[in-house]
Design a protein that fits this description.
The structure is a homotetramer of 371-residue chains. The first copy, chain A, is an alpha/beta fold and 371 residues long. The first copy, chain A, is built from nine helices and 17 strands. Chains A and B meet through strand 7, strand 8, strand 11, strand 12 and strand 15 of A and strand 7, strand 8, strand 11, strand 12 and strand 15 of B. Chains A, B, C, D: Keywords: Oxidoreductase.
């Protein structure tokens, strides 16, 4: 592969985030291969053209299948609604093209399973957009754990809460449909589960409770028509990890006061570390023998940070985590993979979420590999 | 009852804390009855005499049964090791004297059950030392919940972690014996469970995991002899409350970085509130429509605070929560009970802890009233 | 001196705080001399009797001069309004009795000067109630500085702000009269100046600005009659210390959001430490080579703490700082003085405040020893 | 002006930051004019070519004068070392081209004065890179103040501290030369002064102290040769604002524990607000009648934020503030100026810093318009 030609499907918020990330990666990293923004696809031809021009893509397509077939495209990036991830990724894999797909991998565990099998068969690089893991301070947390600085891991307590559905007048959307991977657990909690696996590895068994607090929501903003909601607003679960650690996870999209509260605390025999994504550039750490927690602020000594700023404390933002994700993907395409989430791993995240749903439904412990 | 004659059994840290609290209550509150420090008992006659003198008690006994029989004593306060709570409280109740017992109520659920039955039969006031609930800012939290300011309660996430057993060289003590109500759940977690019940009422069902991280500890500090430890170092549980709320509790005595981290977050349809006992005088609150959490600092507008300071921000300490507990007890003796924990309630806390232990042992959901 | 007989003048909030502190000191410390609560004085004979009884004093006086003359009294504690400190302390010193006086020492620098001269002449122990300095975590801060752990001290940035006069409808009181040592600088700022001296020693020169924001206030709550206010609401100053450090201090009693915000940050060539009295039991510390601040939570390893609790994180409150102040005073009476504020030191605090007022009035740098 | 052709001088960290910002502005904003990256200049021809290619510029120049003369360039962006700002900006203004210059405007107040006069004479848009002001949460703070929500402003307390010169072995660099606008006040403090003016307007008078803590530093890292340092390491000042507010500012580059601590607290008769750039997306606010501070987290309701993320809590980073600065500049070129810092305002910032230096040197109050 001499040159990476990006083919991006989707022009919504995540589509633009991808475009920005490719541009920024080109400017800030010394990439292994040249990068071109080869093609952009949107079902609306005019929008495809406009966005292609303003985001710097060479070609615009209104048919995603033509984008996949485009010979200039040798990496397919998918940012469309969740239910389209499956057909698009399968089509790309069928012609042997690497795929970079937004999370969640699919809208059912069965689809996710087919996708990881197809990826394995195709033998190409795949990545799924769990960009929070590419935060340099999260990489530091992972290294602290892997180097054994926390000793044997004892517990993981995690939460991902926001408040955007707290108001019962917040309307129905595809996020409220299980068939589109809706609900607090699938929408937010999956980031937390992916993070737990990224940091501590496999989960063996789970138990859970799930609540739907507002069972009716307006069909659209201000609409009198109500739709019945079946997905979860709030989930709590117990986890038993393969490494012997135990813990809890909670996910809610109606918890007042939180906007992006992906937080966790990991304790081991030699220390405790804590993170809250509402303070994206900070980690709190207490090692055995120290009196209290110390605040670490991200800086150029962390992997990836220096590409954005030469000085500590000049904070990275959400979009730059996407740029770091893109960099790891491009390195993987050059045979130097980092810790990015491939289809196999993304399926494992989906399977874990499915186990939690099953455990909540049947009110019993579920072994994650039951499914 | 014209005058309250306190008979205090035990001269350890909690014995002194009681003595201080009675003195301070006398000085700062307008009590319904005069209070005298009638008698103090310790098995060591010399220590009993010395402490009685320095703490201002009129009489010293080396035999607790004589203290209970002492006609000047009409309130028996028990601060002895946990396994003595049962015989002492039962003896006091048998002669119809009110009892103020340190937590835990007993070292087995069966004992606790007998004690609450005896209390009911005796028809006297009983109280158990869950002094953290008497924190004025906790009373504010309770009122916020009861007045419906958080709406319907959705979730409770609580933790009580300390680090005093984090070092594997921290030696065995009675706290490491199940027969003395040892283990992180019984020692620390019971405060959290009592708090959860104080704020949200009955728990219907639980599920849990429990870990013993260090299965051997020195028999005493620096001793080469090791003792095998069977009690829990760390417990996580899921809770389903009778009011429909769900949540998690965690308790650990080996989590580096924490000294007195009894913390919880309660969310409802109209708001979220959060507390951490390491910042004893603060509450964080976010109401629907507000952007973020607001910090409330305890002040004289809260019940009980003004007795200690006329100005907000002049913080109350741990010992003053004990004074507030004593005040509620003395009001209860005068027929004006507040929200103190009586034997019935303390038994319910023990039963909840027992249900969590059972759920962890059998790895299944347990209905709290199974036991 | 075989036995310390306390004679306490004043039964307001500070009077009661003294009574509690003497009681608690007796119970928690191993004191060098026995302590008796010998006599209590209040101009109102009935109040004197009632308080004496409820606080455990042996005798009640309605004439403070008789209290000073009482042969059972060999320590005179003064908690009356500020303008009475002078005559009472001078009378006690005149008969050679040690004095424990609430802050401020006096209502004018001239009075303060006479009092320190009289104390020196009498050769007795004197103490002034700057109890915030007796906070164990402040003692830790002082030791960190004295041991050189911060290196050469570079800067002090301090503030003492509250909000109790923020509302322009907050009425006039003696606190609004310069002749009673009123104003934000004298009332609050003097604590901060005393703290700066306690931690860093002499200040050589100052420059300042002073503001009276609300120049009229109701004569009493809800009163239509307005009184003109001349004292400062808010003061900022620059300081040059004798040790070469420089810094700023600010004091306000109308800063919304603060209740007891006596905060400072001290930086040196080897580290920085920070404190905020709204979190009384915490210190933040960053040493050279460390990435960020570490939170230290008070515990029994700090001087004085263990008297109140055997475990870290069981927080001390405002009243317990008073008990620690009393302990140091009682040790000083036994010839083992700690770092308590005597009349000489309290005069130096008053002189520093006077220099700041002069610098603000004349808008120039003032050498502190100009006065 | 039909199309904006950017001519960028300098390829260091700030050069790349500009390039990224122009790209991102193009992608995320609906700009009034099309934008082209016309030319890039660096004295090293090869570096100029390489950077032009990787950052997407059409032409590369090794002579900045040719860039200014380039007819495709109609906006000159200057990111070279400080002493070159003057000749470059003067040359661009001489041919009537708008200038976007990094801070500080110049290395002497005299140069700055000439530059603002030239800008006025040329009648073109000028901007100086005080990008911190373009933080959406800072714009919110400014609006809160301007709408009168804090009432009359009483005080400003500000600080900008970092620790990158804390180690005495941190070597000499141009930042240590007054002739290159070095020292903590010029390098860091000028951001704080610009912020104070942005939020509260003109400062009338100042008083200050200045310290050089380490008067010798290695000529380069690890070098035994020492250079004498004359610029300030730490400055404290008092300010009197034209609007009647008073306050303090401090700036240090050797304060352990801080990485980007541009923090301030502004209080008024109706409220207090606080900001710390180490938590770039947060503001703390307490309004009259509220008990404590509330945390506001940036979200799409704030000006500019939505361009980067549709959801609150998905934090902006340092580089995105630069993009926001570029957007305001481009709007200003289209006649719709926002609150960007032009040469006139940047000169006022320099004059204020010069007044502080003079006040420190002469140890007296200085009227800012003395100079």
């Amino acid at each position: 592969m001499r040159e990476i030609g990006i083919g991006l499907i989707g022009t919504g918020f995540m589509g633009r985030a991808h475009a920005l990330a490719f541009h920024q990666a080109k400017a800030v990293f010394d990439l292994p291969h040249p990068l071109t923004l080869a093609a952009l696809a949107d079902a609306d031809p005019q929008r495809a053209r406009q966005c292609a021009q303003s985001w710097g893509f060479e070609t615009a397509h209104s048919d995603w299948q033509r984008l996949i077939a485009d010979p200039k495209v040798n990496l397919v990036a998918i940012t469309t609604p969740n239910h389209l991830h499956f057909p698009m990724a399968m089509a790309a894999l069928a012609v042997g093209k690497p795929v970079y797909c937004e999370k969640p991998l699919a809208v059912s565990l069965d689809q996710a399973d087919q996708m990881r099998q197809a990826a394995k068969a195709a033998g190409v690089v795949t990545r799924v957009g769990y960009n929070y893991q590419h935060n340099p301070i999260i990489q530091l947390a992972r290294e602290i754990i892997l180097r054994g600085e926390l000793g044997s891991i004892v517990s993981f307590q995690g939460e991902f809460s926001e408040d955007f559905m707290a108001n019962p007048a917040s309307p129905w959307s595809w996020r409220c449909e299980a068939a589109h991977a809706g609900g607090a657990l699938a929408d937010l909690g999956s980031h937390l589960l992916a993070m737990a696996r990224h940091l501590l590895g496999d989960v063996e068994a789970v138990c859970a409770v799930s609540q739907t607090v507002h069972t009716q929501r307006p069909a659209s903003a201000g609409n009198r028509e109500q739709r019945t909601i079946a997905v979860d607003d709030h989930v709590h679960a117990l986890l038993r990890f393969a490494n012997g650690a135990c813990g809890t996870v909670s996910s809610s999209w109606l918890k007042h006061g939180y906007k992006n509260h992906l937080a966790f605390e990991i304790s081991g025999t030699l220390g405790t570390l804590a993170f809250d994504q509402e303070r994206l550039n900070e980690l709190r750490l207490c090692r055995a023998g120290e009196t209290g927690f110390q605040r670490l602020l991200a800086g150029p000594d962390l992997p990836g940070y220096a590409a954005f700023s030469p000085a500590a404390g000049h904070q990275l933002g959400y979009n730059e985590l996407k740029t770091l994700e893109v960099q790891e993907l491009l390195m993987a395409l050059a045979g130097e993979a980092g810790h990015g989430t491939d289809f196999e791993e993304a399926w494992a995240v989906e399977r874990l979420a499915a186990a939690i749903r099953l455990a909540a439904r049947e009110q019993r412990w579920v072994n994650v590999d039951e499914q």
